[in-house]
Design brief:
The structure is a homotetramer. By secondary structure, chain A is an alpha/beta fold. Chain A folds into 3 domains: 1-78, LOR/SDH bifunctional enzyme, conserved domain (Alpha-Beta Plaits, 2-Layer Sandwich); 79-160, Beta Barrel (conserved putative lor/sdh protein from methanococcus maripaludis s2 fold); 183-405, Rossmann fold (3-Layer(aba) Sandwich). Chain A is built from 13 helices and 19 strands. Chain A has helices at residues 18-28, 59-71, 183-199, 211-214, 218-226, 237-249, 269-280, 283-288, 296-302, 326-339, 349-357, 372-379, 393-405, and strands at 4-11, 32-39, 48-55, 75-76, 83-86, 105-109, 112-117, 124-128, 133-137, 147-150, 155-157, 204-208, 232-236, 251-252, 255-256, 307-310, 342-346, 364-369, 386-390. In chain A, the strands form 5 sheets. Chain A has a 6-stranded parallel β-sheet, sandwiched between helices. A 5-stranded mixed β-sheet of chain A has the order 8-9-7-6-11, with no helix packed on it. In chain A, strands 2-3-1-4 form a 4-stranded antiparallel β-sheet, with helices on one face. In chain A, helix 3 crosses helix 13 (393-405), helix 5 (218-226) packs parallel to helix 9 (296-302) and helix 6 (237-249) packs across helix 7 (269-280). The longest helix of chain A is centred in the middle third of the chain and has 17 residues, at 183-199. The radius of gyration of chain A is 29 Å and the shape is elongated. The two termini of chain A are 50 Å apart. Chains in contact: A-B, A-C, A-D, B-C, B-D, C-D. At the C-D interface, helix 1, strand 2, helix 3, helix 10 and helix 12 of C face helix 1, strand 2, helix 3, helix 10 and helix 12 of D. Chains A, B, C, D: It holds the Pfam family ArgZ-like_C_2nd. Chains A, B, C, D: Residues 189-400 form the Arginine dihydrolase ArgZ/ArgE-like C-terminal second subdomain domain. Chains A, B, C, D: It catalyses: L-ornithine = L-proline + NH4(+).
Chain lengths: 406, 406, 406, 406
């Protein structure tokens, strides 16, 4: 017989998302469920009720599912007393101790539900049979012999409801994109998605800012273009100028990318670069006449990768290829966006927003910037296939290229 | 007869939260609904189906509700053709034009569903009877006479499903706390919550960092203490030292808060301050002997507002009241946290985390910092009654005091 | 007789800036100096030597000047022993104790220079006659009776030389713009500069980003325009659209600025706004026909304040007045920049850089943003009359308006 | 005969640092100088004057030196007319065109000094013989045949003086630490400094925050410890707990560092970790009994690398080795700081400030954080041998380890 348990949900379980989350959890974890009773609270103040039977192939999987349901407010409908185990030593918890959430919690002791006093996160629950009462204890407050709650049975958690309507600024707040995620592992997964997109015949659009060049990541991006992992570039005049300056003089805005030195007269390089490319007739001609022999723009020309250079009011020059009219540029960007299956945004807010505005919610998006506010703003547009990274573009692109190509 | 329409939901509407969101919407907006059919997809790949009748007291409210349901993927079960109105002029949309989402969308034209080509956000939809076909148009692409979709009828939106399981880093991403919110209005609402908490007999715990003093907001906080809006302070040695330095010398870390000048020998003030308070026997004695005559610590002593000063490894001194043992300090903070009904965290990550760790999810929390990453980290702890603000503490506290007190 | 003392400087005092700093200090503080000997080290490894007589009108001023010179490495040429005073109690320093820098330091004891052991910042120096030796002590390590160095006499500080040439990444690093400054006092000084510029008949150019409107600061800016404190506006299409949306619907990007709510259909407001202004024929016509009755753009039209709206690739619309060609827009901005005597940059990187590129180094610049990286980047352009503030635009503009107008 | 030219400096050249900078420049670039006249402005309003002869071994070096002097306001005392070359084509500058600063500038034409109109940065100067007048031209305003100034001769630049005294908030502002620097090259130079320090027998102190573990950089740091590049660790309880959790369960705060998944019950791992280490008797015992077999703490124990774990009010546990008293911990940190020759601060403000407070200004410091405000604050302490990097710790440490070890 398939292991089965019945759980109950009560409260504003629908609009708080609790019910949906619980249904999803069971399915995600490989279990099954059957709704036995479902009573919808139709009015603002009415609570809803749902009872469901949960099944899984083996008891330990069922236990895991019940654990997660429990954390989300689904409680067993046939409760037993909580299991209590004595702490083996001062500041040591028994195996499988129950670790608290910060939500109101009750434990069942001798058939009675005791509210847990002073609830806070990541504590153990100790039951004092005198009273009886239950309270949280941080690790260093645990004393040998304390009766500590273990397992999941006999515990009820009551996550607070989301306030109805827009009741002012207070509400469930959610943090945003953090830099504290395992960078290398995340880059590996982005690399895998890039490879997968190309293998499936998809088109990759890269949206790089000038910081890609300043931060020394130009070579790595050029390599990705050369090796066929980039199908189009959407950038500004500044990106192209710095990339070309790098090709002509080894500097970006006058600084040598390898030695970090500022060669004398380096501050003139970017103007010289534009002047020289204008003299040659444009980027393609500059490549043809051997003026430009490396870099991202070079690889684009050499490998027939199309690019759009959109002008802006902070441009020097601009280069002959730069589209100075904003509407015309927007139309060119729109076309690039519509054709892309995956978009990689690299350290540019302006161009990323311009591209992002034109994307359907089904396009894969990777958005990388060192400023969390930029990543936050870009992801607010609501893509369903997005990943944001707060990291250094100067290390991200080289690592990505290495993981894609090696 | 009550205006009623029937809508349908299809897809992974449960674990994507769509169904819950739609139920909640109807209730939030003052309508009612009855579930007429509900078919749960029990397996990972099965879709669910829900049909419900939606009612509202008047047709225009029903229209608003249907609009919102529509944006969330609930489509009318008895569809009619989309309404088309000619654009009155180049670059001008007809009244009540339909503004697109970035999700896959169809419009009904002569009984047939046309997919909308090149879907992107905030566009109009134009139907070209030749073909027939439907496509998005940005405002500047609209030409006089274009047949533009208006109203909500005859349009189907299909928001993408959340991927099941943890399918790698790609997924629905959500932005975090932004600084681009109306600061004054938000401060007004925080002020209202503070006043309300006090009027209800609640306790307010303020957790200020040294930046409160450096940024010149000490006077405003002192005023809030004096006027009875602060029931406890949880801070560090540094906050108290700078506040006392301010009281003794008019400087904070040696800079004059009003003139922004660094008086000669100012760099010694904070050490002198600690030395003098130690000589006096402690903060209370320093107030008693008239050494300290203003500031936050002064008002705490004068108004019997209890404070905890927790020590840290970057402290100078410390002051005699500072609890240098981390566990002892944590216990004192824990007690403050448990007693609080509202907590206001002002520009300190360390102390805010320490307090936040001890809070149940039901306590009201206001968290203010100029660094979005700090606000993000603090709100990730999952309070259900939290508001985060990315703003300047040096303008926030004075504005808050003004709005609370005036 | 005028109080006079002779000090000496030794080392790489020229290219480290030490000598210049010392000369400047004496003059800034109201003293006088005469260079008695000046020996320039002509080669990379040669040290320089300078002896100068310093005078001041009264002994206490001279003492202050010598103190500052001392902190910068200028030592008395006729040294006496350091003054030693016993600590009056545990953890209490004697009056006028010497507070250490983190540079190598020596104290003179019985005619001999003792190196101070374990030098670190903000400590007292204790001399142990046994040995004899001198060492730093933090406040809580001071014991009653310890012989603590007081005053400035008999102490030599040796600030490290700046490494010659560009010796790799290590070097004197300097922090940048911090948010930990007294916000209100700083805003007061900006207000004073603004008033002074206008009183002197100067022109004020304001460069606002859309965040000015989102953050609820539009009213305050409109007021400054109306009252004649703004002579020109340099902005983008987005700023004008949100300001006009605010005037037409009370919302900015769909959110009500006062209630923080998102009215139904609010997301269409910005497109409607552009469409309506296009229909009217432009902003001026929209004001003339009574469509727009308040806001920044309204005040510009009503008070004949010229504005430039530069287009960009992320624009919706754009409005008819928006200059969509980047070069044409740049030329318009250039003219604005050349005419300005004071420029106030408010929360926009793109437009601030565009304006900043065209400014001579003599124009007064105020640059305000909540992101320190933006302020850093803008100030790197090297204005000699600049002030940067890391603060919340939503509180800055209202406070500025209040201080200017009230 | 050695190539020689005479230059003059005028104005507030001393306290503005101009003179010192010019002297330093000549020496840095390998030239020599002799001061021929030196007239010090003794009062606030008096200007100074300095005339010096500059020599270099070859004419092109002399030219370079004169170029740099010129940019800093030192002008040739025997001026000639500026060189003029016609622009070869529209939007193309002649070779060696003079690129403007944003300071007031004059060019000499037929013996007369013409002020350059509309000065702005990075422009060419065009001389119109009719008038005659000189004005700046951006690249796209250059027309074929325009007479463009080339070389350095016949040009005078007048950088504005630094305002004397503390004349309010306006002043020379300087940007701070930027993330837009070539990351890989910078990491290479840090690696070289680390290797050099070890080869010279120096001691390296690493100050890591918990983000090192969260961001997946723990393995790389462990490797550096194992290979002998780390002589001491100064961290907090949190760092050690996450590192040990990683060793015991493969997770950090419950997230798997490789797969980015959150295993069921993962949220209990950090409490379990502390509990298990307490049971074992401490970290060393946990290593001895085989409980901990990898990670930073493991390598410290296995390789006799001493560590200090300082407690804080946000700690869970803490681990038995954690020093919970702030003063005791500070003393332990002080000792580590005094012994270090190079300190590497990794993503922790609290511990970095604590260590930084105890450092003499002569110790080499590397300070890495993704938040520019943290790097700014740490570098404000005035080390003379510091390098700050705004980058992602999760990519920095692995790249550093690779460059040091491979």
């Amino acid at each position: 017989m398939v292991p089965t348990r019945t759980v109950e949900l009560e409260g504003h379980i629908i609009d708080s998302g609790t019910m949906g989350r619980c249904f999803g959890l069971v399915m995600d974890m490989g279990g099954e469920f059957e709704v036995e009773a479902f009573d919808i609270g139709r009015h603002k103040d009415e609570e809803s009720y749902c009872r469901m039977a949960v099944r899984a192939d083996d008891p330990s999987l069922l236990q895991s599912i019940l654990h997660e349901l429990h954390q989300n407010g689904a409680n067993l409908s046939d409760p037993v007393d909580a299991t209590l185990d004595p702490a083996p030593a001062d500041q040591v918890v028994p195996t499988d101790f129950y670790s608290t959430t910060n939500h109101p919690t009750e434990v069942r002791y001798e058939g009675e539900w005791l509210p847990v006093e002073h609830i806070e996160m990541d504590c153990a629950i100790v039951v004092d049979p005198d009273g009886p009462r239950a309270y949280t204890a941080v690790l260093n407050a645990i004393r040998e012999g304390d009766l500590v709650v273990t397992g999941e049975a006999g515990i009820r958690v009551d996550p607070p409801d989301r306030p109805r309507g827009s009741g002012g600024p207070f509400g469930f707040m959610q943090g945003g994109v953090s830099s504290e995620r395992p960078s290398e592992s995340l880059i590996e997964q982005v690399a895998a998605a890039l490879v997968e997109t190309k293998e499936a015949g998809g088109r990759v659009l890269v949206v790089p800012g000038p910081a890609v060049i300043h931060s020394g990541a130009g070579d790595a991006l050029a390599r990705l273009v050369r090796e066929g992992y980039v199908d189009a570039i959407s950038a500004g005049n500044g990106f192209a100028v710095h990339d070309l300056e790098r090709a002509l003089y080894g500097t970006s805005l006058g600084m040598d990318i390898e030695t970090l030195e500022h060669p004398r007269k380096g501050h003139k390089h970017h103007i010289y670069t534009i002047s020289e490319v204008i003299r040659a007739g444009g980027i393609e001609d500059a490549v043809a006449e051997g003026l430009v022999e490396e870099g991202v723009m070079y690889e684009c020309v050499a490998n027939d990768v199309p690019y759009v250079l959109a002008g802006s009011i902070r441009d020097d020059g601009p280069l002959p290829e730069t589209i100075t009219d904003a509407i015309e540029a927007q139309n060119a960007i729109r076309e690039q966006a519509h054709e892309a299956d995956m978009v990689v945004m690299l350290a540019t807010l302006l161009h990323s927003v311009a591209v992002g505005n034109c994307l359907p919610s089904t396009t894969k998006v990777v958005c990388v910037d060192i400023n969390p506010a930029t990543v936050t703003q870009l992801l607010d547009r609501g893509s369903s296939q997005a990943v944001g990274m707060v990291t250094d573009i100067g290390t991200f692109v080289p690592m990505l290229a290495e993981k894609v190509l090696d």
